[in-house]
Specification:
Structural class: mainly beta
Oligomer: single chain
Shape: elongated
Number of helices: 0
Largest sheet: 3 strands, mixed
Helix content: under 10%
Distance between the termini: 20 Å
Mean pLDDT: 75
Length: about 90
Amino acid sequence: MALQTTVDCGGSASRALSQGAGNVLEIIWPALAGLGPGAPILRLELTQWNSAVQSGSSLDVDMTFVARASDGTMATFTVSGRNMVVPAFRP
């Protein structure tokens, strides 16, 4: 899945971005959500379940995104997840 965009923080505690297939990347900004300082929390929701990915499978993920604050400043975040276990499918 490729989702290329610049995220406009706009003072909101979270942003949800979607691509043509309906996959959604949600970015939660802890400080703006009242959770205190911290790195953004990323949540990825895929709309299509691939039969090659079964519950209990392990995945590796790399993501990079660029955020732009309302004053125009930008920050780049890169995250990696290794051996993440796929949960049971919930329709």
